[in-house]
Amino acid sequence: MFRQLECFIHICEEGSFARAAESLLISQPALSQQIRYIEAEFGTAVFKRAGRGVKLTAAGQILYEKARSVMELIDESKTETYELNYPRANQITLSIGISPFDCPYLMPLFLKFHKQNPAIALHFVNIENGYGDLRNRFIDIAFSDCSELYKELYAVHVYKEEQALIVYADHPWADRTAISLHELEHIDSDVFVSDTNTEELMQTSGFELAKPPQTKFQSTSSTIVLYMVMQKMGVAILPISFIESLSCLKVKVIRFLDPIPAREVKLIVQKDRFIEPAIQNFMSYFLEPAKSLSM
């Protein structure tokens, strides 16, 4: 019943079976089956059709309110039992590698995790250049979009981040709101990502440029890349949420038309560290769809 209630709450908050299934990373038929279990248990329908989505029935509204209370009690129980097993006097620190790109999405989740697990301190390390620190055991966990994975590491999908073209405010394309990838072949400015990253991004999007953009200025630091764009040294392909979180008025965001390039961010750990309670707790939180997507 616990899993069914999670699915039920997610549909309530998404307003659609399709969106809820996508967020929960399960098929829509599997999600529908979970709701049928609930309706069979309670002997009543909990949803009714509303346009392209669904709305709660009167019985569904009662169940939703009670289900939320149950989930909150479960969260409180997890926190209290964890504090019992891991007193503050024996506080544990997890070192987490993260790129500035991912801070807008992940930081609110880190805060929620810490509130539920106050005995675990979080130490953040900038890892824009891959996950070498994880392989060398300088950090415990990494969030990365690296495509290669070494055999001693284990990775799971967390989310995808849409990329966009970032140009300076008076760039010739600054008044545009959308652009196709192939138009980058004709741009006069430079794209500030390394050739390998650009090529990988295009391949991931199922697109290959006949004439890749020139990259006279390069950096592995997202902050430096953004600063170069602001100084009119060229343009860049960066995550949309990263730019929006900075409220930067000196640059313009131009979204890509289909195909839309996206970074796949993964949670990565050493395989031989699964048994550590703090890491298990952390992974369980971030891989529980109802938690990871409850922003």
Offer a few descriptive terms.
295 residues; alpha/beta; Arc Repressor Mutant, subunit A; D-Maltodextrin-Binding Protein, domain 2; 3 domains; eight-stranded mixed sheet; two-stranded antiparallel sheet; globular; LysR_HTH_N; DNA-binding; WH-like_DNA-bd_sf; transcription regulation; WH_DNA-bd_sf
Break the fold down into its secondary structure elements and pairings.
Elements: H1 2-14, H2 17-24, H3 28-42, E1 47-50, E2 53-56, H4 58-85, E3 92-98, H5 103-116, E4 120-126, H6 132-135, E5 141-144, E6 153-168, E7 178-179, H7 195-204, H8 222-230, E8 236-239, H9 240-246, E9 251-256, E10 262-270, H10 277-287, H11 289-292
Parallel strand pairs: 3-4, 3-5, 7-9
Antiparallel strand pairs: 1-2, 5-10, 6-8, 6-9, 6-10
Helix pairs in contact: 1-2, 1-3, 1-4, 2-3
Can you give a write-up of this model?
Pfam families: HTH_1, LysR_substrate. InterPro entries: LysR_HTH_N, LysR_subst-bd, WH-like_DNA-bd_sf, WH_DNA-bd_sf. The chain is α/β, with parallel strands linked by helices and 295 residues long. It has 3 domains: 2-85, Arc Repressor Mutant, subunit A, CATH 1.10.10.10; 88-159 and 264-292, D-Maltodextrin-Binding Protein, domain 2; 162-261, D-Maltodextrin-Binding Protein, domain 2. It is built from 11 helices and 10 strands. The strands form 2 sheets. Strands 3, 4, 5, 6, 7, 8, 9 and 10 form an 8-stranded mixed β-sheet that branches. The chain has a two-stranded antiparallel sheet with strand order 1-2. The longest helix has 28 residues, at 58-85. The protein starts with a helix and ends with a helix.
